[in-house]
């Protein structure tokens, strides 16, 4: 049977088109996948709107998609751990395996890393896609392709929770109840957090957080000053959190997290915002608040998969809307506007 490939290509800001593509051939260390599910990430939206991310502009048409799962249909000559018919989650990071960071296991800081759908490798929003086999994670029976695609944001959350040092009896504040914030909620609970409060500006997201196990929620009102936000969060929580996570990519959320967190506590910055923030550093210094960055993921897919497989984390409810690839305009607009109680938009390719 002759395979026909189609993919969703970004040609410029807001300029997406579904086009016919050649079917890629796997190299010796790669596998050819028939894609099943691909989620829309916040960074996809950033690239869609700006044709770039951070200070980097995309300089050629780009295939997006870095939250994928699919089925192996062909493997390269060196691949022995996978076979045709295996369902896999695709870890989008492909490290060089040779630099200093790769050698110590911190491959999220690899100096020559490629990240599918962001830079420079094309992403998985296409029917057939080639990826390095060592970055594919076989899905056991009982884990769906949608859940396989969701392992990517879940792994980001698990990495953040490990960076924050969440253990039993941790008291946690999460700023932002999007996919990453909700995934941090699930991960923090799985790692033993005894109390979690999550704050957002969208009521429907807070209702979802309650469904997914948040002990408390707080809606930040339009125009609310940060001192009011801090005061109200602490009133609801009845104590200061020991660990806070900023998951919205907003300066104001980092500031609230720093002011709300207990002395000698930890603030983990997970959301990707603007290159520079103005923060209350003196207050953080004298109260010995540790400020920790969390970037992407690193060796977290196996943990994420085990937690989902063993029903320790129920990640599937994050998906609120599903689209075929030809409905890309509706899908991206919905993910961007967050209307209709939208959390995660999933393409079924």
TrEMBL record:
Organism name: Agrilus planipennis (Emerald ash borer)
**Keyword terms, alphabetized:** Metal-binding, NAD, Oxidoreductase, Zinc
**Pfam family of this protein, just one?**
ADH_zinc_N
Task: Name what cofactor the protein needs.
Answer: Zn(2+)
Gene3D superfamilies assigned: Medium-chain alcohol dehydrogenases, catalytic domain, NAD(P)-binding Rossmann-like Domain
Cross-referenced PROSITE patterns? ADH_ZINC
**Any idea what this protein is called?**
Sorbitol dehydrogenase
Ranges for domain Alcohol dehydrogenase-like C-terminal come to 180-308
User: What InterPro entries does its record include?
Assistant: ADH-like_C (IPR013149), ADH-like_N (IPR013154), ADH_Zn_CS (IPR002328), GroES-like_sf (IPR011032), NAD(P)-bd_dom_sf (IPR036291), SDH-like (IPR045306)
The record places domain Alcohol dehydrogenase-like N-terminal at 27-141
Give the protein family. Belongs to the zinc-containing alcohol dehydrogenase family.
Its taxonomic path starts at: Eukaryota, Metazoa, Ecdysozoa, Arthropoda, Hexapoda
């Amino acid at each position: 049977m002759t395979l026909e490939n189609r993919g969703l290509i970004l040609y410029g800001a807001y300029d997406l088109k579904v086009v016919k593509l050649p079917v890629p051939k796997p190299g010796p260390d790669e596998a050819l996948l028939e894609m099943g599910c691909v989620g829309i990430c916040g960074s996809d939206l950033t690239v869609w709107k700006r044709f770039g991310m951070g200070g980097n502009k995309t300089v050629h048409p780009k295939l997006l998609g870095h939250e994928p799962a699919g089925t192996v249909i062909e493997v390269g000559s060196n691949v022995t751990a996978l076979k045709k018919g295996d369902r896999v989650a695709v870890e989008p990071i492909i490290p060089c395996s040779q630099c200093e960071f790769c050698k110590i296991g911190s491959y999220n800081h690899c100096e020559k890393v490629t990240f599918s759908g962001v830079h420079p490798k094309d992403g998985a929003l296409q029917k057939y896609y080639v990826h390095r086999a060592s970055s594919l994670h076989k899905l056991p029976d009982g884990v769906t392709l949608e859940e396989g695609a969701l392992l990517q944001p879940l792994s980001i959350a698990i990495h953040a929770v490990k960076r924050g040092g969440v253990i039993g009896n941790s008291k946690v504040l999460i700023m932002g109840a999007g996919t990453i914030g909700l995934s941090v909620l699930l991960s923090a609970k799985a790692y033993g957090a005894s109390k979690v409060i999550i704050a957002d500006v969208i009521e429907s997201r807070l209702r979802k957080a309650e469904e997914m196990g948040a002990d408390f929620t707080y809606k930040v009102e339009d125009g609310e000053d940060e001192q009011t936000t801090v005061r109200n969060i602490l009133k609801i929580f009845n104590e200061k959190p020991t660990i806070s996570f900023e998951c919205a990519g907003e300066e104001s959320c980092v500031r609230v997290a720093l002011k709300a967190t207990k002395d000698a506590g930890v603030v983990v910055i997970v959301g990707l915002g603007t290159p520079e923030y103005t923060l209350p550093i003196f207050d953080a210094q004298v109260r010995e608040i540790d400020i920790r960055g969390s970037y992407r993921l690193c060796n977290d897919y196996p943990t994420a998969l085990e937690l989902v497989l063993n029903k320790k984390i129920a990640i599937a409810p994050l998906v609120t809307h599903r689209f075929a690839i030809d409905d890309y305009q509706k899908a991206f607009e919905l993910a961007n506007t967050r209307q209709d109680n939208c959390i995660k938009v999933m393409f079924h390719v």
